[in-house]
Amino acid sequence: MSSSSAYDPHESAKVAARIEQRWALVVVGIVAVLVAMVIFTGLHWAMMPPSRVETIDPTTLHVSGEFVESNLGSTVEQDGSVTVRLVAQQYSFTPQCIVVPAKTPIIFRATSADVVHGMLITDTNINSMLEPGYISTFKTRFDKPGNHLMPCHEFCGLGHEAMWANVKVVDQDTFFKMAAKTRRLSCVNP
Amino acid sequence: MLTHKRLILAHFWLAFAVFGLAILLGEWQMYIRSPLHAWLRNPDLYYRSVTAHGTVMGYVFPTLIAMGFGYAITELALKQSLIGVKWAWAGFWLIVVGSITAVIPVAMGLSSVLYTFYPPMIGNAFYYIGVVLVVVGSWIWVALMGINMNAWKRANPGRAVPLAMFANVAGSYLWAWTAVGAALELLFQILPAALGWTTTINAGLSRVLFSWTLHAIVYFWLMPAYIAFYTIVPRAIGGRLYSDTMARIAFAMFLVFAMPIGIHHLFADPEVGSGFKFVHSVFTAMVSAPTLLTVFTICASVEIAARLRGGKGAFGWLKALPWDNPQMLALAFSFVMLGFGGAGGLINMSYQLDATIHNTQWITGHFHLIFAGAIVIMYFAIAYDLWPHLTGRAMNDLRLMRTQLWLWFIGMIVLTFPWHYAGILGMPRRMAYYDYSNPGIASQASTVILSVIGGAILVISAMLFITILVRNHRAPRVTPAPFSFSQAVHEPESVPVALNGFGLWVGLMIALTVTNYGYPIAQIITQQHAQVPAIYIGAKR
């Protein structure tokens, strides 16, 4: 520091404050960009978090309504899309293996019969909590045929580590031929 | 001057003792679920261990550190004897009694519900009662921090509350309010079911209430580390704090923005609508602001230290830093881990990206990197800095301290980076074993083995840490120089009223929480079918 100019603490405090303010603006900019990205992808690709806050009585799931055993698994809708219904319970999913077509709009509707469970399908972005009392609904689409694992990803009790299911993605033709013959699609005989 | 060293030492030692035990459980979990060990015949042992590890590391350990450090700050920063010492001891013993009450049913396998509770699963009532006692004990500390600060303000009208105390009280108020979510869940939902008074529970409501606590609790863990960043490290490395005012703004922002963001833990949940998920996502982005301000201020403070030591050039000053000083090393490691962990956090907060890694091993990696990494390494640094003042003995093991910090950093990277990777592959967390013979899982086996190695390095580091503290108690007596906190470049004589107290910030904190949580909670309470049967685990009833 040169000795010729007198040291003025007020001047240096102003410099420090100015640099800080600049950084604060950068911070505001970073936050704004992050939020803008969330908004853009949310609107542009309609990527909103799955939720309709739809409820169902978990104690009567198995006897009446949408989630009775005979109505689970993949169903072809009028418009050619597919709806997959499944139930999670300690310590398995019903059905244990889901057959779905590739390149087709698919809606998952799932719930839990007892405690909080979760599901994800490996190598995809499909990921949802399954909670007693609520129906989780989300739309998806598989790009190509293949096999995926579907573990429960929320601790649900002592058998949690054994709660894995499978998803088999088959090509569209195979799927719709199968679906025309039978309501119950099996992973064993595609 | 520290006049109540025994009180402070009791908190720190109990914290580090339970930490030393819980880290062993963590490493056992890593080993038992890895391909190095056969499938565990009784998976419950694993979940008992996870419950104990999480409860100790999440609730007991950081709470005791915040309390012990808070009492130390009160005496060191305000330069007055702690008011309410008997109450402080009562709080300490409540935590001891609560911890023992909670750990017994967990060890017996009656409450393997994990520290996140997960109703409608209901475990033994004593587990929850123990956790409540721990929280009540910590609330005594919250009250004492407020009382001590206000007593000082009355005695020193118009003067700025020392930064360390301001931040400390901010942390205590943040904890008081964030704990309310889990307290409501425990007292009004879980305990009545655990005691058999009710047989149903609103599980969706429980998740929302818990999210109120679950995110901001991270900032409560973080506060001691940030206080060390601002008020200990710059002094310890021979520098100055760049800005006292910016520090106060950062702590005030944590108070306001930490709470109304917890629903980002529930992006994949069906009980909260899309709108509030979006709102919480935006607020989560805002809470990165105080951390970005902190990174700037601390880097500037460190640069001041380097230039005072003759450092030159745009980046050349980095070489002039006292790298042999454990405080410098701890800060650098903490910032690196905070950087990686923060980047991961930004992915979690945007709901589009969150879907890829929600509830996978990635999340385990994320919070270990932030909490056990960036934050706990600063707990070590705080202990190293305070210990000579608490024991009146010399802290001579500098080499050992550096080794310990290096091991903690390396261990944490080896532990958490593979977890992040496995999470992207879709590996679910909290599983007692994996079927490595399944082709879909086989490729993840190596990540689990790496986490065993990382965990082992961390255990060695933890043991080294405890050894260093124990050795200090036997070192020669010295009279340490009076304790001081960092001095700011421009030390404030007085600060604006808003930055010298908490009226405005606590008001905003409560108002924003009510705004962001009020509707989701009201909606869930009035929802049909929201009450579901409680599922009792463990004990035969």
UniProtKB/TrEMBL annotation, chain A:
It comes from the Bacteria. One of its GO terms (cellular component) is cell envelope. Its main location: other. Keywords: Copper, Membrane, Metal-binding, Transmembrane, Transmembrane helix. The keyword Transmembrane helix applies. It is found in: Cell envelope. GO terms for molecular function: copper ion binding; cytochrome-c oxidase activity. The chain crosses the membrane at residues 23-47. Pfam families: COX2. Residues 79-181 form the Cytochrome oxidase subunit II copper A binding domain. Coiled coil: none annotated. PANTHER family: CYTOCHROME C OXIDASE SUBUNIT II, NITROUS-OXIDE REDUCTASE. This is Cytochrome C oxidase subunit II.
UniProtKB/TrEMBL annotation, chain B:
GO terms for molecular function: cytochrome-c oxidase activity; heme binding. GO terms for cellular component: membrane. Gene3D superfamilies: Cytochrome c oxidase-like, subunit I domain. It comes from Dyella psychrodurans. The keyword Nucleotide-binding does not apply. Residues 1-470 form the Cytochrome oxidase subunit I profile domain. GO terms for biological process: aerobic respiration. CDD domains: ba3-like_Oxidase_I. The keyword Transmembrane applies. The chain crosses the membrane at residues 12-32, 52-78, 90-114, 126-152, 173-197, 209-233, 245-267, 287-308, 329-351, 363-384, 405-427, 447-470. This is Cytochrome C oxidase subunit I. Keywords: Electron transport, Membrane, Respiratory chain, Transmembrane, Transmembrane helix, Transport. Pfam families: COX1.
